[in-house]
Amino acid sequence: MSFSGTHTALVTPFRGGKFDAEAFRSLIEDQIAGGITGIVPVGTTGESPTLDHNEHNEVVRTAVEAAAGRCAVMAGTGSNATSEAIALTVEAARLGADAALLVAPYYNKPSQEGLYRHFRAIAESVKIPLVLYSIPGRCGVEIGVETVARLGRDCPNIRTIKESGGSVERVSQLREALPPDFEILSGDDSLTLPFLSVGAVGVISVASNLFPAEISKMVRLWLDGDPSGAREIHTRFYALFKDLFIEPNPVPVKYGLSLRGKISSEVRLPLCEMSGSNAARVRKTLEALG
Question: Of 24, 2, 31, which Cα lies nearest the Cα of 205?
Answer without folding.
Answer: 31
